[in-house]
Specification:
The protein is of the alpha/beta class. The chain has helices spanning 7-14, 24-37, 59-70, 101-116, 134-137, 142-148, 155-158, 162-169, 176-179, 181-196, 208-222, 259-267, 274-281, 286-293, 300-316, 318-333, 354-361, 367-375; strands at 20-21, 42-47, 74-79, 129-132, 200-204, 227-231, 244-245, 248-249, 343-346, 379-381, 384-385, 402-407, 411-417. Strands 1-6-5-2-3-4 form a six-stranded mixed β-sheet, with helices on both faces. Strands 9-13-12-10-11 form a five-stranded mixed β-sheet. A two-stranded antiparallel sheet has the order 7-8.
């Protein structure tokens, strides 16, 4: 364990969540004081509803909030019904597309579903609460906002923020609309402080500029110290940001990604990432993680199976984790076909092209991608490599009412022939 006083800070350091804090000693002392009194500290995690599900890349700050709650503190999950109408410019080269009211509402419901997989919501002292910044921005007066908030911001300082500076350095235009984003996020932090006594924002390191916008506004406008706490961007041994699988996001909500695919994402993590992922994506005790990450050669696969099971159990529930585990065992260890494999249904196999089938099952976004895989020997039908990009199925490929297809050594799927 590290030398911090609060349980939360020690867990964050030990498990690899800690990157940066606006006032390390101050936040640690504040949390310790709350823990000693049995009074929950309040912290928030924000997400703009630009999509209808979070993905694996969002899980890091979400797991931080999970531990925050386990330490007795109260998480607020803020959905940016207002800020999504602008779009966070951090890491972006252009203005995000505007969303309709219907799309925003649909996405907010999807984010609620994602948050509820990791946090306990309710009316208890440290139960999580969902809030929407549209509630306080929808009726705000523009002149009043400029006077009450804009006077605390220096344009000179704003131009040094990464989200602005990097865009200007790349000579990419930034609208005045986007330039206002950090003011809105700073206002959010202060609003949550006033409504809920929220003193902390927890987020990924890419949000540092937006976070300090809030902490500075809190100090200047309300004479209070607010705290920012960030996680590092989690990358694999090749430096690639985790959460992307061959260009496709690994979604949290089951309607966007089957539980088996979620399980397999973690099952196929590189050997060097096992310890890091066990610390971040599971609730396993640290001593058990140390035992698992010390395994070598073939034994490391056992650690990967535990990682996949534990990560899936948190996100999808125990029954889905058990089903995914059983499918993986049957498919990879017993030579059978597991029941949770991704599949498409057809009334007839005759004439269906391999290009259409692989795209439809979701492994590739285009036929061009499938063609490249075929040239590399990466597609199999009933365990036989396909070399012809114009290959079409026939009823001779059907066995027991289905056709088995595979991409590489780790992705399996079915074409089910239904009457």
């Amino acid at each position: 364990m590290s030398n911090f006083k609060s349980e939360f800070f020690n867990i964050m350091v030990e498990r690899g969540f800690y990157n940066q804090c606006t006032n390390e000693n101050g936040f640690d002392s504040y949390l310790y004081e709350c823990e000693q009194k049995g009074t929950p500290a309040v912290g928030y995690l924000g997400s703009d509803p630009t999509g209808d599900s979070l993905h694996v890349g969002h899980i890091v700050p979400l797991m931080m909030m999970r531990w925050f709650q386990k330490c007795g503190h109260k998480p607020l999950t803020l959905v940016g019904g207002a800020t999504a109408r602008i779009g966070d410019p951090s890491g972006k080269d252009k203005l995000r597309p505007f969303l309709t009211e219907e799309t925003l509402q649909h996405n907010i419901e999807g984010l609620k579903k994602s948050f509820m997989k990791f946090l306990k919501f309710g009316d208890g002292a440290n139960d999580a609460v969902m809030v929407d910044n549209w509630d306080w921005f929808k009726d705000i007066n523009y002149l009043a906002f400029l006077r009450d908030v804009g006077t605390y911001y220096s344009v000179n300082r704003m131009l040094t923020m990464d989200s602005v500076k990097s865009r200007l350095e790349r000579e990419q235009p930034m609208s005045f609309l986007e330039f206002n984003y950090m003011l809105l996020q700073g206002y959010d932090f202060c609003e949550l402080y006033q409504k809920y006594n929220c003193r902390a924002q927890i987020a990924g390191s890419d949000q540092w500029g937006n976070i300090t916008s809030g902490t500075e506004l809190g100090r200047r406008r309300h004479d209070v110290e607010l705290f920012g706490f960030t996680s590092p961007i989690i990358t694999d041994s090749n430096g690639k940001k985790m959460g992307k699988s061959e260009g496709n996001a690994v979604w949290i909500n089951e309607e966007k990604l089957p539980s088996y695919d979620y399980f397999q994402y973690f099952r196929n993590i590189g050997d060097a990432e096992v310890g890091k992922c066990l610390r971040i994506y599971t609730d396993l005790p640290i001593d058990e993680i140390r035992r698992l990450e010390a395994l070598k050669d073939q034994e490391i696969n056992e650690a990967k199976k535990i990682l996949a099971y534990e990560a899936t159990k948190i996100c999808r529930g125990e029954s889905e984790a058990e089903a995914a585990k059983a499918t993986a065992i049957k498919t990879f260890e017993q030579g059978g076909i597991g029941g949770e494999l991704p599949f498409i249904e057809k009334t007839n196999a005759e004439g269906l092209s391999i290009l259409d089938a692989v795209v439809e099952i979701g492994w590739c976004a285009s036929k061009g991608e499938v063609r490249r895989l075929i040239k590399q020997g990466g597609i199999k039908v009933n365990d036989k490599p396909i070399s012809d990009e114009n290959y079409c199925f026939s009823n001779n490929d059907v066995a027991d009412g289905q056709i088995k297809i595979a991409q590489g050594k780790k992705k399996f799927g079915l074409i089910k022939i239904v009457a």
